[in-house]
Structures are given as C-alpha cells and as structure tokens.
Design a protein that fits this description.
Layout: H1 5-15, H2 22-34, H3 37-53, E1 55-56, E2 63-64, E3 78-85, H4 88-97, E4 102-106, H5 124-133, E5 138-141, H6 147-160, E6 166-169, H7 185-193
Parallel strand pairs: 3-4, 3-5, 5-6
Antiparallel strand pairs: 1-2
Length: 198
Amino acid sequence: MRYPHAILALLDELERLPGIGPKSAQRIAYWLLASEYGDARRLADAIVNAKDTIHFCPICFDFAQSDVCEVCGNPRRDATCLCVVEEPRDVTAIERTGEYDGLYHVLHGVISPLDNIGPDQLRVAELMSRLVDAVVAEVIIATNPNVEGETTATYLARLIKPLDIKVTRIASGLPVGGDLEFADEVTLGRAMEARREL
C-alpha cells in the first residue's frame, strides 16, 4: 500500500523502537493520526522534555532529572550495600519489590565477546572507583542469569573480592507459579542450590 511521505516517515521512526514491528507501528501511527492534535502534541512534548531534562546520574549512572538520581540523593539509603545491575530498568524492577534499601550501580550492559563488548565499554572503572572511596561492605551482583550476565558477575567478583568487600549474587530459580516439569535443568539446578529452610 502506498502511504503519503509523512506517514512513511512516521512508520519508519516507530519501527525503530524496540518491540515495535510493522503492524504495531501502523496501529500507533493510525491512532496518532486519528487522535486529537493535543494528544499528539503532548506525546511529542513529553518525548522532547524527557530528552532535554533526563541525564545519567554521575554517581550510579541511573536516570536522573536533578544533579543526582533520587536514590543517590536520599540520605536514608544504606550506603554500605551496593547493588550492581545491567540497565536502568533493572533499578526500577528491584525498587518495585520494596525489599532493598541500599544504593545502585548501573553497568549499561554486560560483557559479551560476541558483540565486542568488554569491561572497558561498561561502567566497571566507575564501580571500582566507588568501592575504593566508599564505605561499601557488600556488593550484590544482580545481572541477568544468562551467559553474559554470569560472565559479568564472575568478572566483577574477581575484581571486588581483593578489596575485602563481601560479594553476593542474587538467587535464580523457578518463578512463582511455574511448573517443575517445564523448567530447564540449569534453572532447576539453581533453584535447588538456592533452597532455604522453611
């Protein structure tokens, strides 16, 4: 189907978004075109405003709107515990649990030799600098339980342990509501290793 140039440009930009294929892009574009002008303008303004005002926190590298992010700027957070995550969205996921009150460090990726990503492309140097200067007693490594996440966790543990700082790894295993018969061997094995007394 032939679209006017403006719609083609809109579809091209929408398809560049993660998780948006041609059909989804078409639905979004049609919604935008059929909606009130004010709705489209608010969306555009929100995108531009976020790009203009959000930056990476100079301490933990999570998203921030002030000089530092809300977590780093909160004096009630436990400065002796530092949770290392892959991406800013991981901070949000952990914060939603309400179970953690320490600080964070965002790596912005994981070690992945196949993608030519090594420690130098991540925020590892900044992490090590924080550990030397801070009062951190425990580092929780919360990278994803996949090959790259495990490689990154092992690499970080080897770097951090000589600093006489406790290094822990988040447990991985079966999701709540999952069935044992559908779990792979690695996941089930990890669940057995991370078992706890009831």
